[in-house]
């Protein structure tokens, strides 16, 4: 099993680059040698919904995808990341089914959060409900009827196939220990999905509640310390939260970069981007696209409301053909504010108007930004919005979740923009300069950006103009300066 290293990570489902894990391994070996050092295989366990995020149990790989041998085979050549849900389980899991069958006599009864018992008065006041960070218009609970005939309202943050769990209960902590220990035998890095919702306290937002959230993370980390497994907490919220977690030494995501790059490439301005590159965490994974939408809440304060709207309007114009087939993007509510746009549903390539030059520049900046780059499989193939998936009635996020056959991949990778991108990715993985120190140029011209990495005699430099989309990547070592790519 390979440990985490400073090389680009692929994000993919087990069955979206070919039919299963064996096909994924085949595709990577055949077409992407040297392009990736790591792979985040999105949930590959038996699941009852939410595209894998309603896990029934973690002890086996979903047989539709393969088995642990297939995961281990991928792990021989790449460092791997797997998902674990601290906040919720599937309602089909054995623990919840036992509770439904045996009620208060179930050893798992304390795993689940009774909505009415949670609140001192049996239900939240209007003020308490208003301050909550919610993903639903109504309260985040769902009613279940147990075998004894009693109906209970249980906390349910996301979808009906999921039910939240109490991280402080002994039954939950045993569940964490058992399953995290199992996953850690196969991967060096585990992603705690939506962990911030696991910190619940009456009268608060019930989202990233301090100091409780640090106890929740520590509870999740306990089973991983002996094996040396690392953890990446996933949270879509204001960038200041990522800074807080980075200060405590955690890996974090850079979810601000996607919107900042869109703004820069659409406006020709680099000042907002340069500011972020100078203050962002260094121990982070960068993204432009993921299995979810393009995060909006992450850049509040880095972009003004007007600048965010500028990007949103342009992306909405691009997604106009898709809008009759999808619901409005996810909404949230925070205290004192109206419902806000949470994400933009669009592939990153489409968001840039399918402009090869803009897309290649965006990726070049990502590969030079602080942190380890992640590339989502649709972005790896410069995929456009999948409107046909929406027409089939699939959920809004399916606009950026096209499943590629092996034949499609073999044909798609011949596009010049992709061959150029893979060349830059291989350079990012093998150049020693990226393990050194970074300098971000403070340009006097709004459209210019310069990023330089130095490690001993090794230097990698990106110089770009966001107006013209011209950029050049150079490498300097003992043998002199070499142009890696220019457009």
CATH fold group of the largest domain: TIM Barrel
> What topology, given as strand order, has the largest sheet?
9-8-3-2-1-16-11-10
Task: Please tally the β strands and state the result.
Answer: 21
Return residue spans where pLDDT drops below 50 for at least 5 consecutive residues.
Answer: 329-337
Query: Mean of residue pLDDT?
Result: 95
Top-tier CATH class of the largest domain: Alpha Beta
Q: What's the topology here?
A:
Blueprint: E1 9-12, H1 21-31, E2 38-41, H2 68-77, E3 79-85, E4 88-90, H3 94-102, H4 115-118, H5 126-131, E5 141-145, E6 151-155, E7 162-164, H6 170-183, E8 189-193, H7 212-225, E9 230-233, H8 239-247, E10 252-254, H9 257-267, H10 271-279, E11 284-286, E12 294-295, H11 305-318, E13 331-332, E14 340-341, E15 343-344, H12 348-351, H13 356-368, E16 372-376, H14 377-380, H15 387-391, H16 406-412, H17 416-430, E17 437-440, E18 448-455, E19 458-465, E20 471-477, E21 480-486
Parallel strand pairs: 1-2, 1-16, 2-3, 3-8, 8-9, 10-11, 11-16
Antiparallel strand pairs: 4-7, 5-6, 12-15, 13-14, 17-18, 18-19, 19-20, 20-21
Q: Could you walk me through the main structural features you see in this protein, from its secondary elements to its overall organization?
A:
- This protein is an alpha/beta fold and 487 residues long.
- 33% of the residues lie in helices and 19% in strands.
- The protein has 17 helices and 21 strands.
- Strands 9-8-3-2-1-16-11-10 form an 8-stranded parallel β-sheet. Strands 17-18-19-20-21 form a 5-stranded antiparallel β-sheet.
- α2 links the parallel β2 and β3.
- α6 crosses α7, α9 packs across α13 and α13 runs parallel beside α17.
- The radius of gyration is 23 Å and the shape is globular.
- About 2% of the residues have low confidence.
């Amino acid at each position: 099993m390979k440990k985490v290293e400073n090389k680009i990570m692929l994000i993919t489902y087990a069955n979206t680059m070919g039919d299963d894990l064996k096909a994924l391994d085949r595709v990577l070996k055949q077409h992407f040698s040297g392009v990736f050092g790591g792979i985040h295989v999105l949930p590959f366990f038996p699941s009852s919904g939410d595209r894998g995020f309603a896990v029934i149990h973690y002890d086996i790989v979903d047989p539709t995808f393969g088995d642990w041998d297939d995961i281990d085979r991928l792990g021989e050549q790449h460092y791997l990341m797997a998902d674990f849900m601290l906040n919720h389980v599937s309602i089909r899991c054995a623990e919840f089914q036992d509770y439904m069958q045996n009620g208060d006599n179930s050893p798992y009864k304390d795993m689940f959060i009774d909505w009415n018992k949670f609140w001192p008065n049996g239900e939240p006041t209007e003020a308490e409900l208003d301050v909550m960070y919610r993903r639903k218009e109504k309260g985040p609970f769902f009613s279940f009827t147990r075998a004894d005939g009693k109906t209970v309202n249980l906390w349910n943050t996301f979808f009906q196939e999921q039910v939240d769990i109490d991280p402080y209960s002994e039954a939950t902590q045993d569940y964490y220990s058992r399953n995290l220990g199992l996953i850690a035998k196969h991967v060096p890095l585990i992603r705690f999905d939506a962990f911030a919702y696991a910190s619940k306290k009456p009268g608060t937002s019930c989202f990233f509640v301090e100091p409780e959230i640090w106890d929740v993370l520590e509870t999740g980390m306990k089973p991983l310390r002996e094996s040396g497994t690392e953890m990446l907490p996933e949270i879509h919220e204001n960038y200041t939260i990522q800074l807080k977690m980075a200060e405590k030494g955690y890996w974090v995501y850079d979810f601000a970069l996607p919107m900042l790059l869109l703004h820069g490439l659409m406006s020709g301005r680099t000042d907002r981007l340069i500011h972020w590159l100078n203050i962002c965490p260094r121990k982070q994974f960068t993204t432009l696209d993921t299995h979810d939408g393009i995060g909006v809440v992450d850049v509040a304060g880095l972009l003004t409301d007007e600048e965010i709207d500028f990007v949103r309007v342009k992306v909405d114009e691009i997604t106009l053909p898709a809008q009759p087939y999808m619901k409005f993007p996810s909404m949230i509510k925070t205290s004192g504010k109206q419902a806000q746009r949470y994400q933009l549903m669009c592939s990153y390539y489409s968001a840039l108007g399918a402009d090869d030059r803009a897309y290649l520049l965006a990726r070049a900046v990502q590969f030079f930004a602080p942190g380890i780059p992640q590339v989502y499989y649709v972005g790896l193939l410069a995929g456009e919005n999948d409107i046909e998936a929406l027409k089939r009635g699939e959920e809004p996020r399916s606009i950026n979740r096209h499943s590629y056959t092996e034949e499609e991949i073999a044909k798609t990778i011949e596009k010049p923009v992709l061959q150029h991108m893979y060349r830059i990715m291989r350079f990012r993985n093998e150049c020693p300069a990226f393990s050194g120190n970074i300098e971000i140029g403070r340009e006097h011209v709004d459209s210019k950006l310069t990023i330089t990495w130095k490690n001993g005699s090794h230097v990698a430099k990106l110089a770009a103009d966001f107006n013209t989309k011209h950029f050049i990547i150079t490498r300097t070592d003992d043998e002199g300066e070499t142009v890696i790519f220019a457009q």
